[in-house]
């Protein structure tokens, strides 16, 4: 990457007033030539304001590459990128090439700045985001290098984690027996997938291991009790976290995989307010995630909740690794888990030909190859059109006899006009075949068809099995508000009130989105529920005061 790239949109021109205001958030520091302001790998580092002097942004030398200078920042500029807001450790280094006076703005002070000055907040946020976008296309991407074999579910999981969290990285797919391209790293097939972090290999890497190394795992502060924990990072969870944080609540957002939920796996959303030409789930979630960081939401992923209990005046959220988050209120937006077909070899092909999303990441696995899509609702129709538009012959398998029963008419019309899509109604997938990856699918009304991928959109089960204390219906969906069963209301007598809207059978625990009984199961509805639940959170918090 050449210097103008990082000094373009990523280096805004500050007015005198803006620069003076920015300086009030920093601590002065005289820097000598050659001194490092922060180093790659530092888990806690500051934004640097350059008053005088000069700072180089450096990708440190890696085992197989020499040091690379990405740009130089001079007077009246600031050094840092989006990792300052999402808690990620530094993956680049900042080195003074000229002695000068600089100011350190801690992450805590940066969050105060973002909350207090809207104009300066937008200017800084845009610059940090622009730098992240530019860095992902240059040598900085080599600071996190993911290596695995094509079709590996573990490698796909790692890549999905990196893309959903918008990490600067690069990914290398190895052909069978292609370990020789890794040179002298002493990597075996059993070590895959490997994450090279600052050139050091992390063998048999998982998203959780990478998150821990990058500083993205939850770290509790001593005796900390947050106002709100949102459990699940889909549209409902993101909306709840954004509204909570923007209204002054200290807010933590947890997701077992990465923010986005099923919405992030949707190739095109055409009925969301304000997007007449449609929007990809990835783009929508990406902008929402950036908005969450803007308002100070602490986002942790992968971070899975295992238990949720009321303890005195607080709630204890226990994570799968045993760590505990203490909160005054919680909103459960854990969504639902994908349903599967009861077929032999299903588990063999999950991540190796069977997918529950149709995004550019999955498309790369099946590009211009025949595929099968199963399902009769909008998500299946959108996936079929997306895959067909990218060169894949598609067999759409629908159990019912009328495509329009559960699918919007505009999608039905487009599917019937798309020459690459063959619709099979009153049909079922009854068999799978292939070697290490999926090669063929058997449809009862057609027989065997070639298929590099099977995309399954047959619904989901609510992710509530870990919430045994909460009142649920027969299908596992959480009851809220006036829907809470009578026998669960006894615990409310001491509070002198009934459950608030979106409140579950346990006071100060709320639910929104797909996990809630009676929800509409649409992206726009989930956003509305998540934001509305925060209004009830404020009322519940008032009871504690």
Would you spell out the secondary-structure blueprint of this structure?
Elements: H1 3-6, H2 16-23, E1 27-31, E2 36-38, E3 47-50, E4 54-59, E5 68-73, E6 77-79, H3 83-86, E7 93-98, E8 100-105, H4 107-116, H5 118-135, E9 144-149, H6 153-164, E10 170-174, E11 194-197, E12 200-202, H7 207-214, E13 226-231, H8 235-246, E14 251-254, H9 261-264, H10 281-294, E15 298-300, E16 305-311, E17 314-319, E18 324-332, E19 336-338, H11 346-349, E20 354-355, H12 360-366, E21 371-374, H13 378-389, E22 394-397, H14 409-417, E23 421-424, E24 429-434, E25 438-443, E26 447-450, E27 453-456, E28 460-462, E29 509-511, H15 523-544
Parallel strand pairs: 9-10, 13-14, 13-18, 14-15, 18-29, 20-27, 21-22, 21-27, 22-23
Antiparallel strand pairs: 1-8, 2-7, 3-6, 3-8, 4-5, 4-7, 9-11, 11-12, 16-17, 17-18, 19-28, 24-25, 25-26
Pick out its properties:
7-stranded mixed sheet; 15 helices
Number of DSSP E strands:
29
What spatial form do the alpha-carbon principal axes imply?
globular
Unreliable stretches (pLDDT < 50, length at least 5) are 1-7
Gyration radius, rounded: 25 Å
Beta-strand percent range: 15-25%
Given the helix and strand composition, which structural class is it?
A: alpha/beta
Average predicted local confidence, pLDDT: 90
Percent of residues in helices comes to 25-40%
* Oligomerization category of the chains in this entry: single chain
DSSP summary: helix tally:
15
Distance between the termini: 54 Å
Major sheet attributes: 7 strands, mixed
